[in-house]
Design a protein that fits this description.
The structure holds 2 protein chains of 2 kinds.
Chain A lengths: L8 E5 L4 E6 L7 E8 L6 E6 L4 E2 L4 E4 L5 E6 L8 E9 L14 E6 L1
Parallel strand pairs in A: 1-9
Antiparallel strand pairs in A: 2-7, 3-4, 3-8, 5-6, 6-7, 8-9
Chain B lengths: L4 E3 L2 E4 L5 E6 L6 E7 L6 E7 L14 E5 L5 E5 L8 E8 L8 E3 L3 E5 L1
The chains are: A mainly beta, B mainly beta.
Chain lengths: 113, 115
């Protein structure tokens, strides 16, 4: 299975943009890039996903490198509520029925007031 | 309910006892996943159900662990003869669409403590 690599932790000041990187150098052509986040004492929640083009939604933006070997989750204006563990995962479009979806340890984002 | 519901939210048991953890997925969601999360760790895949297909049990750590799902509804994760290393939060997620684009909806988890 293709793996992802993320920094263990990051800090950011409140109301500033945050760029969370993810490396996935062994990504295949049928892998989607998904991001989830886990707030303290909660289950993970979906943030955003993409395949090749950059994506925007109400929560965040996803910038995908042209070679797709890395991506960056962008929180445009961090708030204290964005403090969470952020997971970058790959999901294979053609591999249904084998959805092991390994989440790894993610990036723990701390927001400084 | 509107989301994935898990019960119990907290369970304390003695080593050697059996426990059952329940997951009620969102109605109509065909895919259901169980994960284990030890303190300070990431999510460890346990098992995956998709419709009427045979479940992917490859993540179950030992034969003490088993899971069932009735059709496309409730799932039960059973841990027999619990050990202290089984202490963790057990998370359930469901998805409307299998495959790469389906968003996973997670429950809040069942925290298991084995004394």
């Amino acid at each position: 299975d293709a793996k992802t690599t993320q920094p263990n932790s990051m800090e950011s000041n409140e109301e500033e943009p945050v760029h969370l990187p993810c490396n996935h150098s062994t990504i295949s052509g049928t892998d989607y890039i998904h991001w989830y986040r886990q707030l303290p004492s909660q289950g993970p929640e979906y943030v955003i996903h993409g395949l090749t083009s950059n994506v925007n939604n109400r929560m965040a933006s996803l910038a995908i490198a042209e070679d797709r070997k890395s991506s960056t989750l962008i929180l445009h204006r961090a708030t204290l509520r964005d403090a969470a563990v952020y997971y970058c995962i790959l999901r294979d479009l053609t591999n249904f029925g084998n959805e092991k979806l390994t989440f790894g340890t993610g990036t723990r984002l701390t927001i400084i007031p | 309910g509107a989301g994935v519901s898990q019960s119990p939210s907290n369970k304390v048991t003695e080593k050697g006892k059996d426990v059952e953890l329940r997951c009620d997925p969102i109605s109509g969601h065909t895919a259901l996943y169980w994960y284990r999360q030890r303190l300070g760790q990431g999510l460890e895949f346990l098992i995956y159900f998709q419709g009427n297909s045979a479940p992917d049990k490859s993540g179950l750590p030992s034969d003490r662990f088993s899971a069932e799902r009735t059709g496309e509804s409730v799932s039960t994760l059973t841990i027999q003869r619990t050990q202290q290393e089984d202490s963790a939060v057990y998370l359930c997620a469901s998805s409307l669409v299998w495959g790469a684009t389906g968003e996973l909806f997670f429950g809040e988890g069942s925290r298991l403590t084995v004394l």
